Amino acid sequence: MRLAEFYREVWGLDRILFSNQPLSQRLLPRVFAARDQELDRASVTVFDAPRNLLIYGLFGIGKTVFIEALMRDLRETHGDRVLCVSECLDGVDSDIKTTILRGLAKALRSEDDDANEIHQLLSGVELTTQQINKASGVGEVSIPGILKAGGGGEESITESWARKLVPNAAYQIRELIDRAMNRRPERRIIIAVDDLDKRDPETVRANLADARSTLHNECSFIFTGHPLGILRQGYSSVGGIFDLQLELKILADGSMQRLMVNYLEAGRRDDATERGIFPFTEDAAHTVIKRSFGIPRVLNVICLSVLQEAGEMRSQVIDMDVLRECWQRAGDKLRRAINADLRNVLETLKQQTEGLDPEQASDEVFERFGVDSYADLIAKLNLVLREDLIIGIEKAGRSRFLPQPLLEPLLPVAEKDEEKGS
After folding, report:
1. What share of the chain is helix, strand, coil (3-state, %, to 5)?
2. Which site among 158, 237, 266, 334 is 20 to 30 Å from 75 CA-CA?
3. Average pLDDT, the chain
4. Same CATH fold assignment for domains 35-124+160-247 and 340-422
C-alpha cells in the first residue's frame, strides 16, 4: 500500500495539513482557533479610527495567521468600507516604508495609474520603453523620482528598485493614500507589515523611527514581532507609534487540542469513520500537546514529523509506544541534517538546564556562539529559531531558549507526570 493510500484508507486523511507555513485562505478558517477575544479587540482598534497596532508574541505563536484572520474578519464585517493591505518585510534589503509602498501600490493598482506603475516597478516587472523614457525626466518627485538615477534614457536605470529601498517612499505613500481617501472618503485603509524580526533589533528601531511620520497618515498600521526583537531592543526606544500593544499568549492545552483536531479534520475524508484526534490516542495527543508548550508552530512541526514517521511505519494508531519510536526517528533525521555551527548552538543550549536566557548569557555562551554583542546573539538565536531547531518560551517573565523538543528524549508517561508534579 502506497503512503498516500495508507493515509486515506487507514487514517481517513486525504491530506496532512500540519505545516510550519501558513495555510491557504481557503483552509485557514477551518483550523484557526482560540483568538476570538484578541480578534475583536484588534478589529475595533484599527477600524474605528486611524490607530496603529503592535501584535507581539513568541516565535511560532501564530502572528502571521492572526493577521490573515484579522484581515479576513475586517473584509467580511465591513465589505468595501475597508481596504486591507498585507505585506511581509522582504529580507534584509527592504525597509518598512518601501514595504508599505509595495503593498499599498499592489492594493490600489486597479484604481490608480501611478499605483499600478509603482506596483510593476517594485514587483520587478520589465519596464516598457515609455516607462524608461518617462524615467529620464528631470527629477520631479513622482514616478520618475523612483527611477531617476542620473543620465538619460535606458542608462538612467542603473539598478532595479524592485524589493529594495525607494528613496522617496514616504512621499509616494502619502500621495497614494491622499488620492485613495479623496476617491473614497468613507473607506478605512488598514496596512499590515508582518515579520519585522527578519531584521536585527537595531535596524527595526531605526526603521520605525524613520517611518514615524508615515505611520501617522490617515490610515491604520499593524506590525508584528516577538519580544526579543522589537519590544526588548527596538520599540521601547521609539515610542509614540503604537496605540495598542496586543500580546498573543501561549494557548491552553484545551485550545491546542482543538487546533490539533481542526488540522486533522480539515484533511479528513467526509466518509471517514474515525474522527477527532485519530490516529493519535488520548495519551499520545496529550504528550504532543505538552511538549508543544502552547505554541502552534511547535505543535505543527511535531505532528507533521510524527505522522510522517508513523505513516512510513504503517502504524494503525499512534499510541505511546509508536509515538516514542516516531519521536526518536524524527529526532535522528533532524540531527543528521544539522551542520557544525548549529550543532554547537544546540549543545550550548542543552547545558542550560532552565533554557538559555540571552539577557543573562555568560561570556562562554557568546564565545561558543561566535558573537560579540547582545544584538548579534539575538540575531543568531532568531536565525536558528527560523530553522525550527530551537524554540523560545516565556518562563518567570523572561524569554528562554530550548532545543526543538524532537531533539530531546521523550520521557515515559510516569516520568513526565512526576516531573510535572514537581
Report:
1. 55, 10, 35
2. 266
3. 82
4. no
pLDDT tens, position by position, 118-157: 888 887 654 444 444 444 333 333 444 454 433 344 444 4
According to DSSP, residue 148 is labeled -
- If you write DSSP's letter for every residue of 53-114 in order, what string do you get? EEEE-STTSSHHHHHHHHHHHHHHHHGGGEEEEEEE--TTT--HHHHHHHHHHHHHTTT-HH
Q: Cα 30 to the chain's mean position, in Å?
A: 19
Nine-digit cell string for 360: 543573562
Neighbouring-strand partners of residue 221 = 191
pTM, to two decimals: 0.82
Residue-wise pLDDT for 370-402, tens only, equals 888 887 888 788 888 888 899 988 877 778 899
How is residue 412 written as a grid cell?
A: 515515559
- Measure Cα distances from 291 to 53, 179, 187, 302, 410 in Å: 31, 51, 45, 9, 9
Which CATH code for domain 35-124+160-247? 3.40.50.300
Break the chain into its structural domains and give their ranges: 1-13+252-337, 35-124+160-247, 340-422
Tell me the CB-side half-sphere exposure of residue 295, using CA atoms within 13 A: 23
- List the helix and strand counts (H, then E) for the chain: 18, 7
Angle between helices 63-78 and 36-48 (to 10 degrees): 60
Q: Does domain 340-422 have CATH number 1.10.10.10?
A: yes
- The 10 Å Cβ neighbour count of residue 146 is 21
Residues 6+ apart with CB under 8 A from 128: none
Q: Is the confidence at residue 207, as pLDDT, over 70?
A: yes
Q: CA-CA-CA-CA torsion for 41, 46, 48, 49, nearest 10 degrees?
A: 140
Q: Is 163 exposed, middle or buried (0-12, 13-18, 19+ CB in 10 A)?
A: middle
